[in-house]
Design a protein that fits this description.
alpha+beta; GMP Synthetase, Chain A, domain 3; 2 domains; three-stranded mixed beta sheet; 3 helices; globular
Length: 143
């Protein structure tokens, strides 16, 4: 399959030196990061690859919602996004990501509906939904 005409949206490189165990040098757009898979009970040199995935979803959601609020209303206050990976112990249960979005300022219901729709359509959310179930809750303070 020829994909030479495809638009490359993002790229990253991971390099694991032979003497570094699981500590991996990661680079994207000139940024140098570290990923690690430390043994149980050890802190490690950086976030795990799974944690980077959660960071990508949380930050993309917050940025998208901030862009909307700043452009339209500028009253959402702080936007905080918590993402947790659930891997159930019960056989046959579905793994999922639980995303909770917290706003420090009340948002009217029609605008909250738009924000909830935007959260479901962020670039990282759409990427993950190809393979994962991403569930989202909003924690909107009372007006």
């Amino acid at each position: 399959m020829d994909n030479s005409d495809d638009l490359i949206v993002a790229s990253a490189t991971a390099t694991l030196g032979e003497s570094r165990r699981h500590e991996t040098a990661v680079a994207t757009r000139g940024f140098q990061l570290v990923a690690d898979e430390p043994a149980e009970g050890i802190e490690g040199a950086g976030p795990t690859p799974t944690e980077y995935l959660l960071v990508a979803l949380a930050s993309c959601t917050a940025i998208t919602l901030r862009q909307y609020a700043d452009r339209k209303y500028d009253y959402a206050g702080d936007i905080s996004v918590d993402v947790r990976y659930h891997e159930p112990r019960a056989e046959g249960s579905e793994r999922f990501l639980q995303r909770t979005i917290r706003l420090t300022q009340p948002v009217p219901e029609p605008d909250l509906d738009v924000m909830m729709d935007l959260a479901e359509r962020t670039p990282v959310t759409l990427l993950l939904k190809f393979a994962w179930s991403v569930r989202t809750d909003f924690d909107n303070p009372a007006a």
